[in-house]
Amino acid sequence: MFEAEITANSVRLGEHETTGLLPVGFEFERQGATYDHFDVSTDGFITFARTSHRGSPPARVRLVEDSTRLGGGRVSYEVQGMAPRRCLVVSLKEDGPMAATHRVTVHERTGIVEVGPAVRASGSRRSGSWPGSSRLPRG
Question: Which residues make beta-bridge pairs with 135?
Fold first, then answer.
């Protein structure tokens, strides 16, 4: 299982904020479109975009169920591995006593986007938010 390290890039977000476009670190293909940037929202989404060319519509992946709000937290991200098998690992650690850490891994070669289960600080999985790991194929 991949985790963003302490030394990873980090952005602090409040409620209803986004990171703005951040570089993935490599290009990957998903559902026929190529992406090289991402944006994480505390409203429960990660969006992928391509900044160098027009024509690839943004791709949005939901991190939590519709009724779940994340509030604020710290987004950490880094690229792990070597080309052509690099992975972008993104973690969103929520603030507060019931805080959970949410994780997304993007695989360079396959374009697979893995959304891992949310884990509370106590180590338990957050019930109702992420039923388990979702592997979203490149399509």
Answer: 114
